[in-house]
Design brief:
Blueprint (H helix, E strand, L loop, with lengths): L18 E4 L2 E4 L5 H11 L4 H11 L12 H4 L9 H11 L3 H7 L7 H7 L6 E2 L10 E7 L8 E2 L4 E8 H5 L7 E4 L16 E5 L3 H6 L9 E6 L2 E11 L2 E5 L8 E4 L4 E13 L30 H12 L3 H15 L8 H7 L9 H11 L3 H7 L14 H4 L6 H11 L6 H9 L10 H5 L9 E3 L14 E7 L18 E6 L4 E9 L2 E6 L8 E2 L6 E13 L5
Antiparallel strand pairs: 1-2, 3-7, 4-6, 5-14, 7-8, 8-13, 9-10, 9-13, 10-11, 11-12, 13-20, 14-15, 15-20, 16-17, 16-20, 17-18, 18-19
Helix pairs in contact: 2-4, 6-12, 10-11
């Protein structure tokens, strides 16, 4: 039997020549040293290093940190050397090339930050920086095969993944900017409706109108809110004009009342969750919120906020001590295979009282990852020169020659993209935004090292017919290597694995397994009445695989 290879789902596409990928990093011309890469880029710009050095001194007189040394080629012979953040900014200003492109030349990819954040466990709920930094990056994209069916269907039957698109082009299809957050291990106000480690999406539109519609009762909507101690996912109850109570699904949780505007900010109504069914995380306890006698006011970041305040607020909102943050930076360094990302406890403390930001770009990336700070926000708060940054892309001859032939296919696909009834149009209409910033984090979201299109299933219109935890499901990610039913006698029903099964007629359904008198019993996860059935390995249904991740809608749009 011939085995087919499947492209990785939603992953940024990199060409083999002249790119190579090692430990998640991309390098120009793998056979060239960093000094040779720089020399080739400047040669294409008709510039010499001496000219770049002189121009950096002219653009930044009296600011030696921005000056490009004339012997930079010699410094780059050391593989552990990378120009500092000031010099990288100067390279962008002098050459006219984007700072993000220069970062990628030296192996730093800001669009990988969400992937790193997915690997880390944060005590408190944290916002994602959903910015798309490398707008020139190419992404494997999809073409529809026709109208989507109403029942559970493998995505590979609905889409083909044989085209590439630039991030900038895909970004234009998004209609609304939503807010995304990762639920913290100590945020259990909505447990088990939302699980720690899940990704939630919040709609910032008309949040107070939604709250007022509850008429003073506990809201049906879940909200993402910010207060002086961080973020919470919770239900709200309006107890007075501009005053609400944070309501937990657990009766033992504290009931806190806060003033909207001064003590509480409603970021949005939660309408989507990406939940891992494999990790089955549990909240560790209730967060300490401000008491009525010691309320703390919200302190929004002013335009002139310095980076010290930004770091301090980011660390506190993430619920991290210096020791915890340092330990997490070590994990980042291990993941990327570069010890320069590790940041010691003392350094983290010093940054919050220093007059200038850290010079090492690797430390900047670590801080942005740990404290969920946008890279541009960090540079602005640090007072770095951003008004002269270049915007051009490094020539494709140096970066993406293998994809030049794909441009004609992209144009052809774009001409067909507005055809009515296409699956892509359906997704855009229904979800209004495709979170492209998570594209490199899909393996971490699904707990699978290689995620292929055949591993994803469209739930059709059956989402509202499912029982928890699949209620509202739109997409299911299935690990098809896990085909054996596993039942744990010590775990409750909600912790038992969920499986996708195929009937003889080609239809699919989801179910759990349980033991009854030492007999394996099948429990379909459907809200429609059905009785448990005995499971036989050669019966009417065959296990396709274990459902490891579900993307589900939480509330209907207003």
């Amino acid at each position: 039997m011939r085995h087919q290879t499947h492209p990785e789902f939603g992953k940024t596409k990199l060409s083999k020549t002249p790119y190579t990928t090692v430990l998640g990093k991309t390098a120009l011309h793998p056979g060239l040293k960093p000094a040779e890469k720089l020399r080739e880029i400047l040669r294409r710009r008709n510039m010499s290093l001496l000219q770049v050095s002189k121009e950096s001194r002219r653009l930044f007189p009296g600011q030696s940190l921005y000056h490009i040394p004339h012997n930079l080629y010699f410094d780059l012979r050391d593989e552990g050397f990378t120009p500092n953040i000031y010099q990288l900014i100067a390279l962008s200003c002098v050459s006219g090339y984007s700072l993000i492109q220069w970062l990628s030349v030296f192996g730093l990819h800001l669009d990988d930050i969400p992937r790193l954040q997915m690997r880390l466990s944060f005590p408190q709920t944290m916002l994602f920086d959903s910015a798309l930094y490398d707008s020139h990056a190419l992404v494997q994209w999809f073409e529809g095969k026709g109208d989507p069916p109403l029942r559970i269907t493998p995505l590979i039957q609905i889409l083909t993944q044989n085209v590439t698109e630039r991030v900038a082009a895909l970004q234009r299809i998004n209609r609304v900017s939503f807010i995304y957050a990762k639920v913290g291990t100590e945020d259990d106000f909505c447990f088990p409706e939302l699980l720690p480690g899940s990704i939630v999406r919040a709609d910032p539109r008309a949040t107070e109108v939604r709250l007022a519609a509850a008429g003073g009762k506990v809201s049906h909507d879940l909200f993402l809110v910010e207060h002086a101690r961080g973020l919470n996912c919770c239900r709200l109850q309006q107890v007075a004009p501009r005053r609400v109570a944070l309501v937990s699904t657990k009766l033992t949780a504290p009931r806190m009342e806060l003033q909207i505007g001064t003590e509480l900010k409603i970021l949005g109504a939660i309408d989507m969750e990406i939940r891992s069914l494999k990790k089955r995380s549990l909240a560790s306890g209730f967060r300490t919120l401000p008491t009525p006698k010691s309320r703390e006011l919200l302190q929004p970041d002013a335009p002139g906020t310095d980076f010290r305040h930004l770091l301090r607020k980011g660390r506190q909102c993430a619920g991290l001590s210096f020791r915890q943050a340092s330990a997490m930076s070590r994990r980042i360094a291990q993941e990327l295979g570069d010890q320069r990302y590790f940041t010691a406890i003392g350094s983290l403390s010093d940054y919050e009282s220093a007059e200038a930001p850290p010079r090492h770009i690797h430390k900047v990336v670590t801080l942005c990852t740990l404290y969920s700070i946008g890279f541009w926000h960090f540079l602005e708060a640090s007072g770095l020169a951003m008004d002269k940054l270049g915007q051009k892309a490094i020539p494709e001859a140096l970066t993406e020659t293998a994809h030049r032939a794909a441009s004609s296919r992209r144009k052809h696909r774009e001409a067909q993209g507005t055809k009515g009834g296409s699956f892509i149009n359906l997704l855009v209409d229904r979800f209004e935004e495709i979170p492209l910033f998570l594209r490199n984090a899909l393996p971490e979201l699904c707990g699978m090292s290689r995620l292929a299109l055949r591993d994803v299933f469209w739930a059709g219109e059956m989402g509202q017919d499912f029982h928890a935890p699949l209620r509202g499901a739109a997409f299911l990610v299935v690990n098809q290597r896990m085909k054996t039913a596993v039942v744990s006698e010590t775990e409750p029903e909600w912790k038992q694995p969920v499986y996708l099964l195929a009937r003889r007629d080609g239809s699919y359904f989801c179910a759990r397994f349980a033991l009854a008198d030492n007999i394996t019993v099948l429990h379909p996860l459907s809200a429609r009445p059905s009785s448990p059935k005995l499971h036989e390995s050669r019966g009417d249904a065959e296990i396709v695989g274990q459902v490891v991740t579900v993307l589900r809608r939480i509330a209907a749009r207003s």
